[in-house]
Amino acid sequence: MYGALLDALDSVDADVSQRVHDAPLGSVHSSGLLGPFGDSDRDYHKSVRNGEQYQLSLGIIDPSDIEIFQALVNAVVLEGDSLELSHGSLHVEAFESENETHEELLARASRADDPTLEVRFRTPTCIEEAGDVTTMFPHRVPVFTSLLGKWNRTAPEKLEFDLSREDIAGNVLEKPDPGRYDTHSVLVSRGETDDDETRSIMKQGFTGVCEYAFKDASESVENAVTTLALFGGYSGVGSAVARGCGTVSVELGD
């Protein structure tokens, strides 16, 4: 899907496409295709089934990158209504768009009174803790530290959060559902070795459902963490979010 989206961009706006090719898509999140798949004779690949319906979620979290989203909509929805894949095409049947500013997300979070946060990690979530070492568990600190970094890189300066790892560790509890938890090793890209041979670039991560609750948290910590959870629906969690990793959905409970 990453390659298909870049090709679609190139067809409607070569300048934006070149910008995306030349720089990491830190502000763009793509869920990849969500739906039923078949097996494939290629390692780390799945087959799209003819006649099935799939979902694709795109998120832009930096206002300066809104032209990327607009170009993608033009390419996928307004121009061709389809995405070309390696062995066929996907026809776009429906499109929905929603927008929330950083201010609006913070306001929505502040209206929740001591909520629980149910986070569904829908695609492998790969959070780098130290170098190439990734966490394989939805621990509160790496999850919300990842979201904090994305928030502070894109929010107006006045809305940046001064939230420490200690604040998260000492005031948030994670309660993963053991029946809906799994770990994965996923192919996110391909590169070349020093001998010009192609190598697979893999990342490790997890999927599943985890509930986060607060314990003795101040109002500011509670609001910040709740805001970050809601923000994750747009930004994705962890690394390789432009290539389908880290897609989450979030529900606030009492």
Structure in words:
This protein has 254 residues and is an alpha+beta fold. It is built from seven helices and twelve strands. The chain has helices at residues 2-12, 14-22, 66-79, 102-110, 140-154, 165-171, 219-235; strands spanning 28-34, 37-38, 47-48, 55-60, 82-85, 88-91, 116-125, 127-130, 133-135, 172-192, 198-214, 248-253. The strands form five sheets. The protein has a four-stranded antiparallel beta sheet. Strands 1-4 form a two-stranded antiparallel ribbon. Strand 2 and strand 3 form a beta hairpin. Helix 4 (102-110) crosses helix 7 (219-235). It is globular and about 55 Å long.
Which consecutive residue ranges, at least 5 long each, have pLDDT under 50? Answer: none
Radius of gyration: 19 Å
**What is the tally of beta strands?**
12
What fraction of residues sit in β-strands?
25-35%
What strand order characterises the main sheet? 10-11-7-12
Shape: globular
Order of helices and strands: HHEEEEHEEHEEEHHEEHE
Mean pLDDT: 87
Helix coverage percent = 25-40%
Structural category is alpha+beta
Quaternary organisation: single chain
Task: Please give the structural blueprint.
Elements: H1 2-12, H2 14-22, E1 28-34, E2 37-38, E3 47-48, E4 55-60, H3 66-79, E5 82-85, E6 88-91, H4 102-110, E7 116-125, E8 127-130, E9 133-135, H5 140-154, H6 165-171, E10 172-192, E11 198-214, H7 219-235, E12 248-253
Antiparallel strand pairs: 1-4, 2-3, 5-6, 7-11, 7-12, 8-9, 10-11
Helix pairs in contact: 1-2, 1-3, 4-7, 5-6, 5-7
